[in-house]
Amino acid sequence: MNHVAVIYWSGTGNTEAMAKAVLRGAQKAGASAELFAVSDFAPEKAAQYDAFAFGCPAMGGESLEDSEFEPLFESVKPDVAGKKAALFGSYGWGDGEWMRSWEDNCAESGITLCAESVICCEAPDDEALSACQALGAALA
What we know:
140 residues; five-stranded parallel beta sheet
């Protein structure tokens, strides 16, 4: 059974709703899973987990949130490489460029994603929440 960390940053609650769906999917699939707002996760905790789901919405010019989320993500990349990982997030404009850039960043860092990333425009609908649950199950 995998021990899964679901780590997210959310400004409007959309990515938080996605994170909760990822958590439910991992738990339903039998994983021991925990949910963390990015401010509640310390890099030292990363070694305790077998799998990670990271959630961040698109910010500004299609980038990750840069005051809390991106610094944490950068600090845990060495601990995530070689383990199961997946990405999710919401956006309000554009076409998902931030997610493609984030996926490229993961590949360049030796992080292999175990599931297709989940993105949605604005609030997640039933289809997006179902995809988030499947993402969580893939991490289990």
